[in-house]
Amino acid sequence: MIRRPLRAKPWAAGFALVLLSQAATAWGPLGHRAVGAVADALLTPSARAEVARLLADDRDRDGRPSGRTTLAEASLWADEIRGTGADRPTWHYDNMPVCGAISPERTWCAQQQCASGRIEALLAQLADRGRPPAERRAALKWISHLVADLHQPLHAADYAQGGNLVHVELAGRSNSTPWTLHAAWDVRLVASALHAAGGQQLPESALRSQIARARGFALALREAPVSQWLAESNRLARQAALDYPGFACQTVPGAPVQLSVEYQRRAQRVITSRLALAGARLAAVLNRALTAP
Fold first, then answer.
1. Top-tier CATH class for 23-97+104-289
2. How many helices (H) and strands (E) does the chain have?
C-alpha cells in the first residue's frame, strides 16, 4: 500500500529540502512520549510489572541493550527502526478516504497491513504467554507506537500522502519557513499544545494535565474498539486538519497555505485530546492483554 497524491504540482527546490527534513513519522518523539507516559501512569500493577519484565532485555536497532524501561521510551522504537529489515512502513497509517464514499471492504488496508489492521493481531501476540519473549516484546513496542499513530488525524487520511504534499506556514510565528501539513501536526503544533517550546521532552506540568485529562474520559470511550479510533481520526482529518482556506478534494495547493492563529488553536485542542485519549486507550488494551488469567 503506497500513499499516492491526488494531483501533485511541481515543488520548488527549497520546499523539497524542507520535506526531506520532515519525514513523516506520525507524531514526533514528543507526541509519542506523551502517549506512552500517560499509559505508563494508567497501567495496573500487574501490567506494569509485565511491561518491565518484557523490556528488561530490550535491544536497540543495532542489537545493543537499549536501557528502555517504560512505554514512553519504548514507543519511539518503531520509528527508530526505519530503513531496517524490521521496518513495516504501511503499519503506521490507514489510507482511509476523506473524500467520497468509504468502502466497507476496507480496500485501503490490503491484507491488513495498516495500523488498524495490525493492532488487534499484535495484541493477541502480546497476550500469548506461550510465545518467545522477544516476539511479545516486539509486539509491545509496536502497539505502544501504533495506538498513538492511529490517533493522529492525518494518519487516517488518504489526501496528498497524509498531508505531506501540502506546504503550510504558521501565522503569527517568527519562523515562517514552510512545513508540510503533516509535519506541522506531528511536531510544531504538538510542541505548542504541550507547552514544550519546540523541545522533545514533555514538561512535568503538561504530563500531569494529560494524565488528568485521560482519567476524565468516560469508560466507554476508553474501551472503544480500534474501528472507532480510526473513524474518529478520519473525521478529524476532514473537520480539523484539512479545514484550511482553499481545500479541495481533487487538487493539492501549489503554494504554501497559511494556517491562521485560530486554526492553530483548534488544532492544539484536538492534539491534546487525541494524545490523552491515545494514552488512555493504550493503557486499557495493555491492561487487558497483560493481565494474567
1. mainly alpha
2. 14, 3
